[in-house]
Amino acid sequence: xxxVVTLAQGAGGKxxxxxxxxxxxxxxxxxxxxxxxxxxxxxxxxxLALSTDGFIVSPAFFPGGDVGKLAVCGTVNDVACMGAxxxxxxxxxxxxxxxxxxxxxxxxxSMAAAAREAGVSVxxxxxxxxxxxxxxxxxxxxxxxxxxxxxxxxxxxxARPGDAVIVTGDVGRHGCAILLSRDDFGIExxxxxxxxxxxxxxxxxxxxxxDIHTIRDATRGGVGTVLYEIAHQSGVGVRLDAxxxxxxxxVAGVCGMxxxxxxxxxxxxxxxxxxxxxxxxxxxxxxxxxxHAEGSCVIGSVTREDPGLVVMQTEIGTQTILPEPGNExxxxxx
Amino acid sequence: xxxVVTLAQGAGGKxxxxxxxxxxxxxxxxxxxxxxxxxxxxxxxxxLALSTDGFIVSPAFFPGGDVGKLAVCGTVNDVACMGAxxxxxxxxxxxxxxxxxxxxxxxxxSMAAAAREAGVSVxxxxxxxxxxxxxxxxxxxxxxxxxxxxxxxxxxxxARPGDAVIVTGDVGRHGCAILLSRDDFGIExxxxxxxxxxxxxxxxxxxxxxDIHTIRDATRGGVGTVLYEIAHQSGVGVRLDAxxxxxxxxVAGVCGMxxxxxxxxxxxxxxxxxxxxxxxxxxxxxxxxxxHAEGSCVIGSVTREDPGLVVMQTEIGTQTILPEPGNExxxxxx
Lengths: 334, 334
Fold this sequence. Notes:
CATH 3.30.1330.10; four-stranded mixed beta sheet; homodimer; 334 residues; seven-stranded mixed beta sheet; 26% strand
């Protein structure tokens, strides 16, 4: 086989089968991975959560992960945020002709590692090869299926005045790591993406409190965008204590130099959790005992006042409105 | 709103919400379409079929359809071919900055029409906008979920010697239509793609015979590639009667001029159905009574001899081996 991906490998014939065997099956094989056009999986009666997400990130490799890890974590986290247990994943690849096979293998291997950690099986896939210039490197679209239990069903529209707003770690790492990897600014800083599967942390939180109102993973729009979504969907205000929003010193430094708001930098391993005030201690304890959520803390509360707005209480006690997410975010992380 | 897609519309903020409202929700809205990161759907206990497929077709509009119709039909057909009833679809869009909004709307409207015909609901979606030159126009990845009943479970590895091989209409239309749309050859011919949702035809066939061994939809590799897959997966030979393979005169004409094998031209609305000989009449009757399968006919049989090969009986009585699909197919249809 060549050491780069060829158009013939996307044509559906013998070379496609070879690529699937050597790269995809070698890493993702499991008893459910299908040889037919669809996988067959067992589910209990009830409700499923379904989520899909496309991943185009440049560069494809960054400190703390790559597009493969991102594609698994992003979808697993979306399913888990609904209160579901993620079980199955499908993945579709669109690969540029000439893409190095060794890099593709690294990406697939890190998908496999992330899927193992998240407890999901990749059951079906698709590979297309596009001509040079038709796609930029590798795009991955994953779709996740999870099973919903009978417990809480957290959603964006369920936040209530008085609720506590928790974030599960320091914000803006992923966006900052990507920005530095692009090397457009000549800034040297040691920032690792927070990209991680959060299903176990979410499960722990739900086990600690069956009345969590909202769980959202902050992705391309950062924690700020999630807070605005919750404010709009629930018709409430969000009051943030700016001094309590955890930002790593190196991220804060980069944001300072470039004039960026860390609340709008992408995360890929951070949750916003909204729960009743009397459940905060239990939820915080459960999150802090979970991998990838050790840094959980309360950053604010839900208010009846200022519906649809996120208001920041600053260090010197003044209140400002966090600007609503609008135009293209910098850096653009898809 | 602008009349082209902007990077800001892919950034996850306010403009993204506007794009989703105006284009996606306007056409695809249904009670299950989620505002959260994942959709919640009901399923009965049992087995699900899951399939994913990415669609990059150039040109995006062709006689008989567009990439939106294709993206729905392709995945619905894959799920239905497993014997499942397709219920839910997710779709992820990767759109090039500057893509005309009017064209995007046409694509989404034709997805909605195809979904209605196929009886599926689009329950979750994702929109990413890539910079100019990062993607070529619009890519769509769909994932389908279907429910399997307790009846037959057709699969590629279940063909048996003596079985009849049915095709549900004339072959090669889609590939030929795309090729002519590209206008690389200066050939004028009136060929319409066969792109169609086949779930109802498949359901009729399965109702007529609960022991259908294999159902596959012929896509990018054409009917020839499907026959080779069945030959390999079932460890059998396939004997084709070349005179019985239906090819529209205009498709045959184009193939003759360009030296193409119609069995290797893409289809997007044709099935290969393999069933026991005593069920042929019932299966054919059911298919012929179904929309999009009126032209169903037997084109050959499964043999114990020549395992792994597709042998063609030609008009003058000689036998030749259909060349195995291998290198890049012409025209390349993803």
